[in-house]
Specification:
This protein has 9 helices and 9 strands. The chain has 248 residues and is an alpha/beta fold. The protein folds into 2 domains: 2-37, no CATH class; 47-240, TIM Barrel (Alpha-Beta Barrel), CATH 3.20.20. Strands 2, 3, 4, 7, 8 and 9 form a 6-stranded parallel beta sheet that branches. The protein has a 3-stranded parallel beta sheet with strand order 1-6-5, with no helix packed on it. Helix 4 (98-106) links the parallel strand 3 and strand 4. Helix 3 runs parallel beside helix 8 (215-228). The protein starts with a helix and ends in an 8-residue tail after the last helix. The model has no long low-confidence stretch (mean pLDDT 91). The chain binds zinc ion (ZN). Zinc ion (ZN) is lined by residues 63-64, 114, 118, 155.
């Protein structure tokens, strides 16, 4: 912004091409867009996107729940296969799904913070508003499961300096992924499966959504893939050797 003001001011004193006026804000927007879009680059928020390991382990994460119809089916499949996963929940979806949230926890999965509002405009929230939103979600979760999450995944995987400051102040650990399933976009289960299995490496963190239309089918196939290829599916806390909740 300052650069923009200075450039605009100097325009009246110096003669240089008009496009210099839009260059600084343009570059700034570009840096912000690139930095925000690639969570793995850790441009603004240092996110953990995989484990550094040679062991064939991987971890499953599900965003955007709890979902009254789809989450129970995912839970059922995980239970049958004795797999522990992580659920990055949206606070505003918890109301009416309190029992489901409890069930996720009781079945041994991790509950993590995926913001309260999951607003399209999250990227434009000032730091204070991000902090309030993340706190509200953590408090909502705590009221139900009695634990305060330390793991956070930014809505849409987008990060910026305000989110970075909030994460730091609340001492959260930002969790990304290195295998994005695109399960809310790709409707063909085989294509989805190929996309995911092509990208799996030791220490991978897989991103799915409770809300995906073929997530459940893909999950079942991923479990078979893991069994066939000698991969152990472990929880994020085991994969990354971190705590999922604040110590009380
Ligand atoms: Zn999300």
């Amino acid at each position: 912004m300052l650069a923009f003001v200075l450039t605009t001011a100097s325009y009246f004193f110096l003669e240089f091409p008009w496009y210099y006026l839009i260059l600084p804000p343009f570059l700034y927007s570009l840096v912000l867009a690139v930095g925000s879009a690639f969570i793995g680059l850790g441009f603004f928020v240092k996110s953990v996107c995989k484990a550094e390991t040679n062991q064939k382990t991987l971890s499953l994460s599900f965003d955007d729940g709890p979902d009254a119809t789809k989450t129970p089916l995912i839970l059922e499949t995980l239970k049958v296969n004795q797999i522990k996963a992580s659920f990055f929940v949206i606070g505003k979806k918890i109301k009416g799904n309190e029992a489901l949230l409890k069930q996720i926890r009781e079945e041994g999965h991790i509950i993590a913070n995926h913001s309260f509002s999951h607003s399209y405009f999250y990227d434009f929230y000032p730091t204070k508003k991000v902090i309030e939103d993340l706190r509200l979600n953590n408090n909502t979760i705590k009221e139900i499961i009695g634990l305060t999450p330390t793991l956070f995944r930014p809505p849409y995987g987008v990060t910026n300096p305000n989110i970075a400051r909030a994460v730091k102040q609340l001492e959260l650990i930002s969790i990304g992924w290195n295998v994005r399933s695109l399960d809310t976009v790709i409707t063909d289960t085989n294509k989805l499966l190929k996309r995911v299995t092509d990208r799996i490496k030791p220490g991978s963190i897989l991103l799915f959504h409770d809300t995906g239309s073929n997530t459940l089918e893909t999950l079942k196939e991923i479990i078979l893939f893991a069994q066939k290829n000698g991969y152990r599916i472990v929880s994020l806390t085991e994969l990354l050797k971190i705590n999922a909740y604040e110590e009380s």
